[in-house]
Amino acid sequence: NGGGMCMGHYDANDFPEGQLAQEFTLCDHYFQGVFGGSIANYIYFVSAQEASYPGAPATLLSVDSNNPATLNDNILSPDFFVVNNIASFVFSFGPGQPQLPAQNLDNIGNELSSKGVDWKSYTEGLTAAETDPTSAAAQASDGSPFLWFNGYGPGQSGFAHIQDLSQYQQDITNHTLPAVSWIKNDDMHDEHPFTSSVLVGQQRVLDQVNAIRNSPYWKDTLILITPDEFGGWWDHLSPPREGDGHTLPGQADSFGPGPRIPLVVVGPFARKHFVAHEQFEPGSILKLIQSRWHLKTLSVRNAAANSLVDALDLDRDGDHDLDDRR
């Protein structure tokens, strides 16, 4: 809107997520995975890799040019990698809208399943999308990030891990919450500009945190709160790149990390009233899961990422020695 929105800001100190950040840990050097839109970052979030669409129609390709008249930012990079938003092969964004073919990239869901670790991806609007993909509720549901991967469509074995958000509270009540969970709220409840509001979205997150906090699961649970990408807001901190003095080899490539976004670490294993300054990205979240369940890393950047263990309080003997952490 004329460039004005990118300079906007909210003072979120008194908002629900701001209060959680003050009570627990805020990671102030956490960056989105891909320098691009939500879908590119959904896919990276669970795979630490970039999706591609070889042979895609030329109408989907960006054009890299020094001439402003021909420069074009589109869904795909000139070499067919996803950099912006495209629907999955499962659900359309609307009639005639392009859909990304099922991706065969390995992902954290595959790795958890191979080790027999129970997991779910709770998605608001999934039932509506299955019932009527053209409904308003379905269109408001961006879906689980796993829906862009082969093996996770309806009728495929992985689809059992993707469940409607309504199942989240039922699993807490029934003591059937899995070891690892992802939650994706729909566009009306995710703080997305124009479709939601910051306060509505953050209250939804607080309700989901409190559902765990008021249950027996709290003492054994770590909750990570983050958006998929920065949404166009300006930030004075440059994204990481090799040679900047703090980004190690392998921690950056031509796709990212992208701009800084918040990550709030909540739970009894989070440091209290703490700001973590280590450089993190979604591969850091994956690395924490991989360390916990002895899984392989999924990419060069995933392997090189700093683990989120450095933001946790896992002290065993009270001396705050980093060697106590594992």
Q: Order of SSEs, N→C? A: HEHHEHHEHEHEEEHH
How many helices does DSSP assign?
9
Rg estimate, integer Å? 19 Å
Low-pLDDT residue intervals, each spanning 5 or more residues:
316-326
Task: Please tell me the overall pLDDT.
Answer: 90
**Largest sheet data:** 4 strands, mixed
| SS-based class | alpha/beta
Q: Count every beta strand, where a strand is a DSSP E run of 2 or more residues.
A: 7
Helix content: 10-25%
Neighbour order of strands in the largest sheet: 5-6-1-7
Q: How many angstroms does the end-to-end distance come to?
A: 47 Å
Quote the beta fraction.
5-15%
* Global geometry: globular
Helix-strand blueprint:
Layout: H1 16-23, E1 25-27, H2 38-47, H3 108-114, E2 119-123, H4 126-131, H5 136-140, E3 162-164, H6 166-173, E4 180-184, H7 198-213, E5 223-225, E6 263-266, E7 274-276, H8 282-293, H9 300-304
Parallel strand pairs: 1-7, 2-3, 2-4
Antiparallel strand pairs: 1-6, 5-6
Features:
326 residues; alpha/beta; four-stranded mixed sheet; three-stranded parallel sheet; 7 strands; globular; disordered C terminus
Kindly summarize this structure in a few lines.
The protein is α/β, with parallel strands linked by helices and 326 residues long. It is built from nine helices and seven strands. A four-stranded mixed β-sheet has the order 5-6-1-7, covered by helices on one side. It has a three-stranded parallel β-sheet with strand order 3-2-4.
